[in-house]
Amino acid sequence: MTAAWAIFIFAVIVIILLLALYISGWVKRLPAWTGFRFEKDDNKVLITEEKRPDQTTQYVETREILPGRTLWDWLQLLIIPVILAIVAFAFNAGQASTNQEIEHQNMQEQVVDGYLDRMANLLLMYKLCDSKLNDPVRATAQAITLTALDRLDGGHKSIVMLFLYRADLIQYHWIYQDQKSVPPDKVPPCPGSSLEQKTDKVQPIITLPWGHLEGIDIEDIDLKNIDLHNTYLSGVNLHGSSLYRANLGDTVADSIDLSNAYMVSANLYHVYFQNANFQDAVLREANMPGALLSYAQLSRADMRGVNLKVYIREDGLKIPAQLDHAALDHARLNDAILVGANLSNADLTGADLSSADLTDANLSNAIVTQKQLAQAKSLAGAIMPDGTKHT
């Protein structure tokens, strides 16, 4: 809320209060000098001399009511100009805000247009699609992209991301098993490229290390094999999108919306997914060791065969998957690997745990029945809902 609107609302509230006080009769208790009592005292006396018919003199006293200026009188004089001034100020402030928004949008459009022009030049003139790993043109494209993302809002970041994906610049590439496999350093992957289909898995042409992608809103779109590892995805909306074999490893993705997303075989290792929404998502065979899913919504999610075991960093530090307070009601966790996972206070109502590996898992205060746990493949060393350790 702008300052102008705040002042305007305050003035309206004051006027309403004064009217309410007058109607209620409370104003009669106020001092007379305020003028709110609407009582006026005589303050001028005029004595005139008149002749009677019998020639005698008659003195006539006339009292004229001439009240002085009271607070109410001053308010009557000032209140209308003040309100008009406030309205004008609010209008001007609103107009200025609109102009600023238009200017902001124009600047955003200029950034996007400039980015697309430079990328088109790299694609057409410098053959970005045919470039190899560590080629300068790739580093240039990466720098241009990361710089543009830092300057854009969520809506315009979405435009950049769709361009990068549709230009085949930020995804892995796979070929059929009967095709010859070549080492990953033999890169290239734009459709129609002279180097197309030469590897079984090719690194993306552009990666976005620690790129700021917050605010992106892309629903119900095909993003299979996309590589967004080591990026910031907080609050991103990818509802209903296909992220088959996507790589979101090591991202910060709290409050991300992946409900109804198709994420079979996705690589989600050591991701910060706190408060994320995975309701009705398909996460079969997803690789999620060390994922932090505290307070995440995973109701009815298909998590068959998902890997949520302990993540071991390069320095040897072991990081267990965190699913404390997560909503896993009616989730399909059969064959899931939950070794060492923290499921304390999780809601597993109706969840399918058949053949799930819960070795060393923490189930303290979890909402789950003994019948469900009996279907698990292993509970060795697990902390049970009542706090006891399974032997």
Distance between the termini: 60 Å
Shape: flat
Low-confidence runs: 175-200
Estimate percent helicity.
25-40%
Major β-sheet annotation: 2 strands, antiparallel
- Give the percentage of residues in beta strands: 5-15%
| Oligomer designation | single chain
The helix-and-strand class reads mainly alpha
Q: What is the rounded Rg? A: 37 Å
The total of beta strands comes to: 6
Arrangement of strands in the largest sheet: 1-2
Please state the average pLDDT score.
Answer: 83
Count of helix runs: 5
**What is the ordering of alpha helices and beta strands?**
HEEHHHEEEEH
Task: Briefly say what this structure is.
This protein is mainly alpha-helical and 391 residues long. It is built from five helices and six strands. Helix content is 28%, strand content 6%.
Report what the structure shows.
With 391 residues, this protein is mainly alpha-helical. Helices cover 28% and strands 6% of the residues. It has five helices and six strands, in the order H-E-E-H-H-H-E-E-E-E-H. The protein has helices at 3-24, 71-124, 136-151, 154-166, 370-374, and strands spanning 44-51, 57-64, 173-174, 201-202, 311-312, 318-319. The chain has a two-stranded antiparallel ribbon. Strand 5 and strand 6 form a beta hairpin. The longest helix has 54 residues, at 71-124. It is flat and about 130 Å long. Mean pLDDT is 83; it is low at 175-200.
